[in-house]
Amino acid sequence: MKNLKLFWEVPLRLSLQFHSDGETLRFCAFDIDRNRLFFLSSHNLIYTSHLSSFHDNGVWSRNASLAADAVTVRLDPGDSVTSFDYLMEKEALLLGTSNGLLLLHTVDDDDDDATQVVGRLDGGVNAVSLSPDGELVAVTTGFAQLLVMTLDWDVLYETPLRDGVPEDYHVNLMLSSIGIVIFCEFVFCFDFSGGGNSLPVSWRGDGKYFATMSDACGSDSLLKEIKVWERDSGAMLASSKQESFAGSILEWMPSGAKIAAVCGGKDGNECPSVVFFERNGLERSRFGVDARVKFLKWNCSSDLLAGVVDCGNYDAVRIWCFSNNHWYLKHEIRYLKRDEVRFIWNPTKPLQLICWTLGGQVTVSNFVWVTAVMENSVALVVDGSNVHVTPLSLSLMPPPMYLFSLKFSSHVRGMAVYCKNSKNQLAVYLSDSSLCVVELPSIETWEELEGTEFSVEASHTEMTFGSILHLEWLDSHKILAISHYGFSHSNQTSSTVGGLQGFYLQEVELECSEDLVPGLLTSSGWHATVSKRNTLEDLVVGITSNPVSKHSAYVQLSRGEIQELHANGRIVCNNCSSFSFYSNLADQVITHLILATKQDLLFIVDIVDIFNGELDSKYNNFVRIINNRRKEENESYINIWERGAKVVGVLHGDEAAVILQTNRGNLECIYPRKLVLVSIINALVQKRFRDALLMVRRHRIDFNVVVDYCGWQAFSQSASEFVRQVNNLVLMAVRKALEDHITESPARELCILTTLARSDPPLLEDALKRIKIIREKELSHVDDQGRMSYPSAEEALKHLLWLADSDAVYEAALGLYDLNLAAIVALNAQKDPKEFLPFLQELERMPNLIMQYNIDLRLKRFEKALRHIASAGDSYYDDCMTLVKTNPQLFPLALQLFNDHTKQMPFLEAWGDYLSNEKCFEDAATIYLSCFNLDKALKSYRAISNWSGVLTVAGFLNLEKDEILNLASEICEELQALGKPGEAAKIALEYCGDVNTGVNLLISAREWEEALRVVFMHRREDLIKTVKNASVECASSLSGEYEEGLEKVGKYLARYLAVRQRRLLLAAKLRSEELAASDLDDDAASETSSNFSGMSAYTTGTRKSSAASISSAATSKARDTRRQRKRGKIRPGSPDEEMALVDHLKGMSLTVEARRELKTLLVALMMFGEGETCRKLQQTGENFQLSQMAAVRLAEDTISCDTINEYEHTLEKYTQKVRTEMHKSEAFSWRLRVFLSYE
After folding, report:
1. Angle between helices 746-757 and 764-780 (to 10 degrees)
2. What pLDDT digit, counting tens, does each position of 465-499 carry?
3. pTM for the full model?
4. Alpha carbons 998 and 975: distance in angstroms, whole number
5. How far apart are CA 894 and CA 905, in angstroms?
6. Are 128 and 83 in contact (CB under 8 A)?
7. How distant, in Å, are the alpha carbons of 40, 126, 170, 271, 328 from that of 197?
8. What is each CA distance from 398 to 212, 388, 454, 664, in whole angstroms?
9. In angstroms, rounded to a whole number, what is the distance separating the alpha carbons of residues 1164 and 1007?
């Protein structure tokens, strides 16, 4: 669980000598020994630059350029370089040309003969690849020949790449580096005039094998195959099946596990796929890419695969990683299409990427792996345009699984999390330079979001943010960003904004225009504004908020490359592989550092030890001491059982857990003893005894720690609070201690019985089982000496009866189905034998199962009673039915106990009858259908007016046509009575065949378009006029309603503003009088305040008096009931008048159904040619909706204000504002465009 973060990026411009003449960069090579780059341009100039130039001071300045030396390589006219690589052994560059020249250019030689021709190949040089050990060179030619030679230019072997080429076919080769000229006769020729097909070569990391890609002989030119060759002998070991590989991309993973290539998708899928092959040529896996892949390259550690992807309007460098059998897209850097970006990985630094463009911009990007687990133990895993969210405190879901997902409009480049004051906010910056903000609900509600994907909108802004490198929250509405402008990958959609160029520190303010609803995720409506911007001159590698000072942050500047873990100005660990922080405090103050080393040791470090400088003495410099003779429990570290596992997060507080992720991707949760003890002690200090005892039990810690930490005397003072909190836990602990540490004796047994009897609820059956064992030992007369360790059964029973209710003990004895024990309990409880003996004797005469059944009925254990009577045989089937009908919750269990279909049917019918009586007709109908009781199913469906179900069941009953017609007519009438004319119309048309009634019902339902469709389908021209007249009449009625509603909106709003204004004036008057009254004595001021508290109807206070203070609870309840009944009414002068007016205005809004009906009416009017009526209706409806929405917004804006501006807070201004903002919103989608006014 980790994400790839770009923390260091320096783009510099390489000054090309012939830039004005169209000079571009074509190739790049890397010198590992001297850490320098070589670039070859289209004008055959070799530029040499050192990587140290990217660390110089001032490289972030606006006009900084990359220092480089340039030399020219002279080629014949028409010749061009096709391959370019660096030979470290010879300190020279090896160039291959289209005319077949192999050139060796000595980079540090200024003489004219620095470039030498070391060979010439017929057909031209197609590709040159140097072996990883630098001893061999593999060359492919234009004639599809493969040559492998040493650095002394001796040819080890030569072989054709295509099948079917004669063995006596050779390339005419001339080698001249050592003065020897060799001519090989050219006897066979192929026409490869198609040209442009590259023949790539890729070596395995150990140099033992290499792979090539070539066209498949005798097949379509689109089909190619991969061949694997042995280094020493040149023998072909394996080949892949013929595939339609895209381009000539071939890249063998340095670790040797996979060979990467690109081909079209399977089953005609147009999206290409990155395919991985094994050394034997078999396909191992693949993943899809949504664009054409132009180039692929592994990093030196084989954990990252980068590629250049053609995305249509732009090119992008994408970086993937593999974990848990899933390929994650971790990063994307966009470039302009015309730049044709290329890149190489630094051969010695697996997380450094070097990109260059045709125009000479060279960018060095340093990445770092950061944990995807945030401070609140929530994992946020980036995968392309998704962020997968998993709260590890709820469940340990290893990736690629997750709880829910956030979907963004572009690929995610980085993010920042804000978790304070119950707020969970996420800021994400994307590869298209946009910024997104998401506010998440409380983690406790996240289980409801399982499996959901939320689409997140980009924040609205008037300017671009450039290419963001770092992001950090300052507070819930302000973030800090490091961005750069003016480079090829800073902004792909527009030119440089406002002349900005270089790196800037930007403060961005956020505001959400939508209402934040608690418990819901907010992913839209955010507005971002850059409030401050400062130019940066130094390299920034990180920013973090200042926990001490609000609205401030620390900016980390680069001062060289540091590999150790530092804290407080000193080195903590120089072999750290991963770390995290843990807090056991409620305020989340860090208390421990969780540290994993490269030797797979896990250390739990106290923060105090870091500040006190006690690391060496306590943690032995974070290495394993081989000769250490201390016991294992005293060791300061934990051995990580799986090599290479990393710390990805922790669970804070009482959980005291560390989450590790293995190399395979699995998650493991461990509980270090040190953290567990710290959590227990923290709970004891806070006197959370129950939590402490639960942790002691869960982690099998000695219970004595509860007392030993504070001491016996201090603990005894809190004994009452301890007993109150832990209750049963204490009894369980005492009982366990008695059983494990106290020798057997009568007193011990009586104490154990006491803990069982005093539990909540009492464990009487367990106590009686112990007494039963004692009694059986007494009756057996065996081991008389052993019986001395126990009290007598009678003594134990009397002790139990003294501690617990005698009736409860008697029922517990019955629950054990031991009649003798029940009789003994009854006698010792001094029950009347006439009461219990007849009952026990009757039970004794019954069969065993029937006895248990009757006892269960007496004890109201109905589930056990059903199980026992069901096992008694078929003769008791009626008793089972009676029991289940009496206790309907047993119906599901009865269906499980009776597997016979014939025995299940009566239970199903009885269950349906019960549900029908309970008015659960839908469920009853389903159960009736399961037992094929169609008559009752039809009645149940009809009871809830489910006409579809009624008519379907009628079909199953094979009713006659007349019966179905009568049934449909009755249902049609019932639906009309219930106010469902639309559904009634369907029945009238589909079952009754009554077009007149059906059309009239559709008119009643205002389904105008459907009514017209039915009329024309049945060719009833006589009904067209009916529909037309009804639609015109409905339009006229609606226009009148909207005009009346418009007047009401103005009336209610005017009343609201008047009431609000008077309330504000009165509130101001009260405040001034309170200030004047503050000079009076306390009694007078108190009396004045009391008198004013309820004088006005425009205040929310209540008048209090001595009479009110003695009002009864019944009177108060009656008053609340009346207030609840009158809610929603506008009572002039009441304290709730303002809110009632606002609620009434909101209630006047057009519902979704009303808007749908309005649109279908407008369409129908246009069909009838009633354009003027349609225009008038749309205009009045639009005016009403605009006024209603404007009135609601005006009321909401003024409800929280202390003043009302009579010039700003007007309906006209708010109507114009709503018209502008909501012009294209979903609320106005009902309008016809033909009548929209020009805006």
Report:
1. 150
2. 778 888 888 888 888 888 877 666 655 444 445 56
3. 0.59
4. 13
5. 11
6. yes
7. 21, 9, 20, 22, 31
8. 37, 11, 21, 10
9. 10
